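Morning run. Coffee first, then this:
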Amino acid sequence: MAKKPIKTAVIALGRSGWNIHVNAQKNDDRFKVVSVMDLDEGRRKQAEEELGCDSYTDLQTLLKKSDAEVIVVATPSVLHGPNSIAALKTGRHVIVEKPMSATLSEADRMIAAAEKNGVHLFIHQNYRFNPNFTFMRDIIKSKKIGKLTHIGFLSHSYARRNDWQCLRKFSGGLLNNKITHPLDQLLALVDSPIKDILCDLKHISDAGNVEDHVKMLLRAENGVTVDVEDSSSAATVESGPDWTLLGTCGAMTIRRGEAKLRYYDPKKATKLKLDPNPMAEGRRYGNKDTLPWKEEEMKAVGQDVGSYYDAVHATLRRRKKFPIDPRQVREMMRVLGVCRKQNPDFPGK
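And here it is:
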């Protein structure tokens, strides 16, 4: 069984379905795409010729006729929940593109369907396998900068989109289309439920009616704060670091893959004594405290933990625990839902 290829069916052959999922599988003998579904005849014909697979025009027919054990859901975001639930109910494992679903209630139904049918729900939060994520995770675990107190993500660009991702009816917008990757990484690094959420959404430069500028401030139950600023309508010439991590005895920033750390060993610092006298000596504040600061620069590349599909194979063929629990992603869907409730109408257009 361990050597038997995993038979998959890919639902929708667009950018994600074809460029990401089919391309990840077609040269990997651990997987075999046996079926595809797409409304476009040209895409179906290409898949038949290049993959030697069956093709269908609707999901229900594919689920009845295909012998795939894993269904890859890469349809538009608004269909992720319904398509995944339909596949899970047939006893197939599901790989679903991000966002997991359009709503929190859909996410709950997806998790329930997987548990009821004894199958896996794999959510394609593949950035957890990126070397910059493992690098940040290992820095936090090492306590080099002390106990984590704050983490931030910043991304600025300016581009006027006009595709389907700009429409609410398809669950488009930055929250679903882009922020699901860094926010998933942030929540995994914080490793605590979020208790306070403040979010501002704006629609500035894109066509359509969804957000293209997001500011989000979060506070977790363990006290760590999270700052997310992601905008495709920010024409900054030079923005700050992509990632900022603050700790009790240091900090780290990452910009364009380059990490800079500044930290000290608290065991080597002199004990700081409090001076309660309200009349400062010489009418001056401050003291002569010096700290044994260290500074380092390095590539933000952590340990290689393999690819997303390596983990899928290990779970299905070697019974390894998949590193992304759907309930972790559910917490992100809850946060995104609160953000939307706080912004029923966007300022701007």
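Residues 6-124 form a domain with the Rossmann fold fold (CATH 3.40.50.720). Good start to the day.
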